[in-house]
Queue: 4 jobs
Job 1
Amino acid sequence: MSPKALDYESLNENVKKAQYAVRGELYLRASELQKEGKKIIFTNVGNPHALGQKPLSFPRQVVALCQAPFLLDDPNVGLIFPADAIAKAKHYLSLTSGGLGAYSDSRGLPGVRKEVAEFIGRRDGYPSDPELIFLTDGASKGIMQILNTIIRGEGDGILVPVPQYPLYSATISLFGGSLVPYYLEETANWGLDINNLRESVAHARSKGITVRAMVIINPGNPTGQCLSVANLKEILRFCYQENLVLLGDEVYQQNIYQDERPFISARKVMYDMGPPLSNELQLVSFHTVSKGYWGECGQRGGYFEMTNIPPKTVDEIYKVASISLSPTVPGQIFVGLMVNPPKPGDISYDQFVRESKGILESLRKRAQIMTDGFNSCRNVVCNFTEGAMYSFPQIRLPPKAIEAARRLGKVPDVFYCLKLLEATGISTVPGSGFGQKEGVFHLRTTILPAEEEMPAIMASFKKFNDEFMEQYEDHRGYSRM
């Protein structure tokens, strides 16, 4: 009897090829241990609220009123909700065609897209067109939508930074394209070398791959670096010369933990550079409410903005977006609130600033505690987390540990991370899930555990690591860059 359509052996091969390490073997093992009663610290995914970050009060108040509009008719509503939250809820409800239970336009509510365009204009100093902004269920859906539009088959390549966020490798596999890696330089604080980019493109073309787009993740995931203006200019010139679409994953733009390199959008730098680049280079930028000091991962609110994309292409993207009918409406309202938060003089302004500053200041401290903690460990080196939500230390594994892993049929950093999980309950992601240079090993952890728990977590990590190194090191050297 021939296999049925949903039997494993007859599935779409692209589905089987797609790998997503953030929820891979380590995560599944951690989930098993949790069911057995072991305390697990899930640092494998940037999920702030799951690790105890409290939601900001104002946006939750507004969305609560939008979800339950009958509360607005209650004479006591002003005793529970501040007047500016009530006004904002009425504003967002007026933008819908029937409240949060009704579909919106497939691109999202026009009123919210207008607020996003105004935010981008204030941020960059150049106006933005709401018609070129699509609201999406988190940034991931937007990224998938654009990659689906670009990739025509396995002959099409997408330049992706390595180490990379596995959304890209998984999605490119799913759509049948080819990932073209360009390596970030760890010894230069995960900087980008333009010569390396050129080599990556030349190598891909020698294999018959047409490179169509380039991804930048700024600030970086998993590497946590912030791109300088000089680096961004090089990237933009390179994309212009090579006729590539630039995909700017800028979801961590609010997560900055140093003052030397603030976030600057690729769009702003492009417009600052002027014509012909500024009116010819195709750019799509992505943002979300899941990151920053919002951390509203479960609300699934995001957007992408297109620059220099032809109207006929925009129409095609709209057509494909329409197949899903509309992005989640509460998520869209969260996007509106993120780009248009309380202003000075508003009743909720002081509380909003106090809460958001408290989160960012704590994240800055945690980034430092974690970097210092890793660098105090034997055979571990770690660049400072300049931005985003992750630490990506290099683990210099002794040859005996690499051999022990190979005997078990494990990638060496998977072996290390599984041992770490069993010993401490800390659930991380092995660096091999993000891509790394041959013979070099890492792990990725979020910096999101509660600040007061961080010293104990790092002490637990250090104890495990140093005992592991003592066990496997033969004191004649170790694997290094």
Job 2
Amino acid sequence: MFKAVVILSFILGLATLCLCQLNFSPGWGKRSQEECKLNTEAVFYIYKTIQNEIKKLVECEKLTR
């Protein structure tokens, strides 16, 4: 019991030494329209990759039936 009290006191003592201040700028969390450009090449590549994997899965299912 004494050990637990000492550890708890130590942790509370450390907690009192820690101070923090958090500031937010007015534009925090907002994105301008320029940052949200769509990379069509990347989207097309992802689409084709998914489409090819689906074709492979369909072929595997046909072979197992």
Job 3
Amino acid sequence: MAARLLRRTLRATEVAPRFLSASYGLVQRAAYASGGIFDVGQPTPQSHPELLADGEITPGISKEEYISRRKKLLEVLPEKSLAIIASADQQMMTDVVPYPFRQNGDYLYITGCMQPGGVAVLSEETGLCMFMPDTDKEDVVWQGQTAGVDAAVEFFKADKAFPLSHMQKILPEMIERSKGVYHNVKTSSSSYKNLDAFRRASLNNKVKDLTCYTDELRWIKSKSEIKLMRESASIVSQSLLQTMLLSRTHREESQLAAKIEYECKMRGAQRMAFHPVVGGGANASVIHYSRNDRKIKTGDLLLMDVGCEYHGYLSDLTRTWPPCGRFSPAQEELYSLILETNKECIKLCKPGTSINEIHNHSVKMLIKGFQELGILEKGKSIQYNYLNPTAIGHSLGMDIHDSVTLPKDKPLEPGVVITIEPGVYIPPAPILNESAPTRYRGMGIRIEDEVLITEDGHELLTASVPKEISHLTTLMSMGSEPAADGLELRAACS
């Protein structure tokens, strides 16, 4: 025990060596020490040993894996290419109040840096070159320490690093020497786009989108990534189950939105993957409902679409249930169709099939079911899109819709994570050409699961959350816990 404590103390007090830039001489060292620990503006194995093991840059992902990702990207890019990847910008709520920051997926995937303001450049000639934000003492007072050039080399394992203020002197020459410049078009930064060299390259058709290459790399998850995604799915599954139990007595959408966020963060999630969808009754028929400001009426179904982020990896899960513990006959009929479609589509998840194939199967099942229920007229299947305009699922990873540039007919492979989420959305009053019997009006039902493709089939990452009708009604009817207003649960559901 004493020896282990001594080793930890020695690691915590190590001072990282100085970094000499190959081109620009000595880089001035910043005062990164905080209580004897090298502070890079985010958790490290020394500052947060409970989160990171030795050799990890972010929790669960080693420096070797980050270096391997960079090598793979260079291997798939054309010869003499230059990849430019900007970090996300810090968005401001007011002039001095920032929104919570979330890093750009490609920048985090390549560098491991979770802070705003940087630009990463990758080429065969230079390896990884990171341009880090210039930080003054006043910034540190208000915002805390951030990573600089020292951290870029010593912690993030960049081959070269410079202050961002030097980029206009260094990057143009790198652009001129390259045959092609690749960057993420949707998340590009004016810090390099305004350079004359970049503009000239763009006019000469040398500038192309990098996303198709990074999306390909991010399509199949490593063992380390899968472990993080399993944990993210586990966190949101446990949290939703607790929220479902609370819905028996607390019927405000806002309260349930607060509950799911609380439960996720108490279990280790850093943030929600997106603003929770908490739709009671007709609100569930709005696919991306976000107001969460109504009270759920007795007899209404509740749809919750939620996800959380666990060290850069996201989860995505939807359940629909009756908080009072009983489905009406019409609700049960429609729910049974969506559940059957969910289960049959999950069976199709295996190597070699594609999201498109699974989607087409779901459309056939739902059209047939809608026609049998009288929701969709025979011979008018084009009206199906008014009932369900969404795809059956999407790739999931560091972003909710991950690897979006890849074709939907790309065969699934072991290590890919997708969602399966059939649904139906019937507004209280007809919209456009949609028509449905009155008893189905104002219903929205979606059942979404996360599926990991394995060598011989699939693994359901969200299997622990009930979705069978019998399981949901039993769960909602357990006990007689007092309601918020002091009435018994059974009385609240009557």
Job 4
Amino acid sequence: MGSESESYYDGSRMFSWITELSGIPIDLINFTVTQVVAVVLAPLFRHILHPSRTKPEVRHAFGLVVGVVMGYFAFGRQAVHLAGLPALCYLIIRTQDPQTMQRLVLVVSMFYLSCIHIHRQIYDYGSLSLDVTGPLMVIVQKVTSLACSLNDGLTYKEDDLSANQRYYAVSKIPSVLEYFAYIFHFHVLMAGPVVFYKDYIEFVNGHNILKHSSGIDNHIDSNLRSSRLMLEPSPKLVVIKKIAASVLCAFIFVSFITSFPISKIKDDDFIEKRTIFNQLCYLSIATLLVRFKYYHAWLLADAICNLSGLGFQGYAPDGSARWDLVSNVDVIQFEFGSSLRESIEHWNKGTNVWLRMLVYDRYKQYRTVLTYALSSFWHGFYPGYYLTFAGGALFTFASRSVRHSIIRGCFQGTPALRGLYNFLSMVTTRIIVTYTFSFVVLVVTR
């Protein structure tokens, strides 16, 4: 990380000696420290502060305090934005008409986030170092989704809502403690995934275990805290797998990214002296390696949630516990998806649900374009984002009009043809996914 990025970054310098010894940027060290602390505290949160022996207010307060300290450690004075944006939105939620409140929250939160995006682009242009916009983007997801849930719960009858809207609907405005604990709880502050308020409040109150446990009625006993929850599954095996996968992804990224830097595509030689096939192969490898960085952070964040008891979603048909309620990525499904839609559904899954909640399910006309537009606007203002999402919308329309209506029918005659179709679809999807290099490079200049 260059000196300009170092001067912009305002996090703690407590571990700068590790930077001097290893050369690892201080922002990455601080991020790692916060996640290690979260890994240590998560099982303590699950056992010592278990809902059977601890009041929800204590669980809220603990998650809030740890999150605030973590945010200040990682971002210094910039952490004020982590409180400033949700404070403005909470004021709107408490004072405005529930019928229009969600629109005002969306406008205010996106305007606030946009100002921070623009500020960074002015003073730290093109840098990929850690900064406050990352967690602020997740906070925008939280406040806007909560506003929509309150709009659904306070202004509509259940029969007027879709199944998804009924699930997330909230009919009571959170208290100050509940609201800011939801915003700051340490499990997902640094790397997501977005946790929706309905899932968060059920987790803190201990209702999620009874809700999803087989054979238990959904009615919650008021004396819940007097005895330890029954049929509570252990996340140990799932957590071990996710942490192991996260470490493996980090190892692959660190080991090979220097051999395939994505920035190389800016070189004149890359365009002028390489064949299209060679360029495509290089881009495929380089973008894959960049994705391993995201896989590392997201899988570790998933593991932290599961360690604390957050993420349980009932039992699979084979009786095994499912811990994918707040999962952000399914690596296998994304990398081997047979269509662009299938791959997108398994990448940044929480954001997909958020976009569906805010736009796709609420607008019938132009909803695909509006969804991609909100996603690009939420990410910031680098040209690379808009190239990526405009291309995504284009490929989505092309897939609907050509792939399903014309091509697919030609390959359904025999099992062999269907298998060939699935293989060719997977290869084509991998080629299309390669276009996301603009998302990483942000600006391509020669």
